[in-house]
Amino acid sequence: MSMDAPALLRSLRHRNYRLFFTGQLISLIGTWMDTVAEAWLVYRLSHSPLLLGVAAFASQIPVFLLAPIGGLIADRYDRRKILIWTQALSMVQAMALAILTLTHVVTIWHVILLAAGLGIVNAIDMPTRQAFVVDMVSREDLMNAIALNSSMFNGARVIGPAVAGLVVAAIGEGWCFFANSVSYLAVIAGLWMMTTARSVNPSSPQVASVWSQIKEGFGFVMHEKPVRALLSLLAVVSLFGMSYSVLMPVFADQILHAGPRGLGLLMGSAGIGALCGAISLALKREVKGLGRWIMLGASGFGVALIVFGQSRMTWLSCLVLLGAGYAMMVQMSSSNTLIQSMVPNRLRGRVMALYTATFMGMAPVGALVSGTLAQHIGAPYTVAIGGGACIVAGALFGMVLPSLRPHARRLIVAQQAEAAAPTQP
């Protein structure tokens, strides 16, 4: 690795992380193509904001309900092998949706049922992926790896929607689903080529009951104030703010009259902003100051949503979504980094499952509520209300931030000591 770019790309000096990064980047482009195409397909079949919300609810509610079990699986079994299985199942789901769409037999209920199936897979996949990062890089590179993961995710978020908008307009949604299915081969190949120690935590007794081990993760979150505060803020932003993306087809079609290409532009703009936010965090070498970034990110995201809701020009909407994406990523990725810096490794899968459940679990409820609300008061006012809630939540977090710092410092020091301790033979 050249010494010219260690600050931004230092995690890529680890071979396993390079394999993961490359495979995930290809796969995530397919995932974002699928996301845009699926939203447009649901809207084309139903012309209903409510059913957009129902489809999003179906894909995300299994994560909320099952992620704690997924986190326990991530702590008990080899994370690399778990991910190979979950990615293979996701590939099958995407191919099924592609076949149904390309043969012109797809219905809204096919989409919803397949979305729910993918949600069950994601309940295991997402906490495992979060916990797997520390198995691929050294602890001093953890913050950079998390930020690079976010950069990768949002780089794909720029490319995928733009390509999907063109493909959907030219030849239909089915080929986006097919491309997504094929793209999973890249990440499966990367995982297969890795050489990692079996990431099972020996301190987590196999004989203990599943419920008692899940409760241990809950207990850590509830007892430690900084983790509890971060997840509470994340829950509010996910519930009220993140549902704006569910209503994107409504904005593209009814508000901005921009069609599927416009939908790709809107989602790509948010992705560019989020990519810039992730790169900013990747350049940061320490967790000091992240609490302030989180507060400003949540509040800034809320302001951007209010402005976006009132915009009637595509170029202005895209510009505002750049800011929304940046602010959202600063808050989400900083929260992820801080939590991973504070959690003991034996609880990592379970705590990151709660992070996933909070992020993904509140979103489906928000999607259902926003879809229903948009049906009655319109998408612009619905998004503006969500933005206001994010501003209030960010301000409240800022008020308690000084009292959280000593507790956060204690947890971070404890985890640094754990990492420095010699491993048992």
UniProtKB/TrEMBL annotation:
GO terms for cellular component: plasma membrane. Residues 1-405 form the Major facilitator superfamily (MFS) profile domain. The keyword Transmembrane applies. Its main location: membrane. It comes from the Bacteria. InterPro entries: MFS_dom, MFS_trans_sf, TM_effector. The chain crosses the membrane at residues 20-43, 49-70, 106-124, 177-194, 230-251, 263-283, 290-308, 314-332, 353-373, 379-401. Keywords: Cell membrane, Membrane, Transmembrane, Transmembrane helix, Transport. The keyword Membrane applies. It is a multi-pass membrane protein. It is found in: Cell membrane. It holds the Pfam family MFS_3. One of its GO terms (molecular function) is transmembrane transporter activity. PANTHER family: INTEGRAL MEMBRANE EFFLUX PROTEIN-RELATED, STAPHYLOFERRIN A TRANSPORTER. This is MFS transporter.
